[in-house]
């Protein structure tokens, strides 16, 4: 009876360990601006500070049907995240696989279809032009007509 109990306990521990290794670590945003009040279903996959406390860096997974999203909605989403920041870096993905490929430097089909945009903001650069722009990254899909184009934000 003890052996059966030990075997079941070991099996449960193994299941917990193996299922935990295949899930994304989600970090809760630590700044109010990193959680915009926009009606989009999304998960913050990673968050970091860039240069100082007035910055935000986030990798975001949008859990929406991209066919129902507009360019304007994504721009509003980015603006809400970065509105009060001097520095910002935002990457938006539509699939966990695209995010995995990006982190593994494996730029395959999932990355090409699921990496939607990258956004950079640096409003403190006095010697150079200030940066506040989206680069559209999706090669195939809803926003592929924007691929490699830049949208400057005010």
Attribute tags:
154 residues, 30% helix, globular
Total of DSSP H or I helical runs spanning 4+ residues = 4
How far apart, in Å, are the first and last alpha carbons?
A: 70 Å
Estimate nothing, just give the exact number of structural domains: 1
Characterize the overall form: globular
Strand percentage: 25-35%
- The neighbouring-strand order within the major sheet is 1-2-3-4-5-6
SSE order in H/E notation?
HEEHEHHEEE
Parts with pLDDT < 50 across at least 5 consecutive residues: 14-34
| Helix amount | 25-40%
- How would you characterize the largest beta sheet? 6 strands, mixed
- Mean pLDDT rating: 81
Describe the structure in your own words.
This protein is of the alpha+beta class and 154 residues long. The protein is built from four helices and six strands. The N and C termini lie far apart (70 Å).
């Amino acid at each position: 009876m003890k052996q059966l109990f030990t075997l079941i306990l070991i099996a449960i521990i193994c299941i917990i360990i193996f299922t935990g290794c295949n899930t994304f670590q989600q970090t809760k945003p630590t700044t109010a601006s990193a959680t915009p009040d926009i009606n989009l279903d999304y998960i913050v996959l990673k968050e970091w500070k860039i240069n100082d406390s007035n910055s935000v860096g986030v990798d975001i997974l949008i859990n929406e049907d991209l066919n129902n999203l507009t360019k304007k909605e994504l721009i509003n989403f980015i603006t809400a995240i970065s509105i009060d920041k001097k520095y910002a870096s935002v990457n938006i993905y539509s699939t966990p696989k695209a995010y995995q490929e990006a982190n593994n430097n494996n730029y395959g089909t999932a990355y090409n279809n699921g990496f939607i945009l990258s956004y950079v903001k640096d409003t403190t650069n006095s010697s150079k032009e200030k940066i506040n722009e989206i680069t559209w990254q999706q090669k195939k899909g809803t926003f592929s007509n924007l691929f490699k184009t830049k949208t400057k934000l005010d």
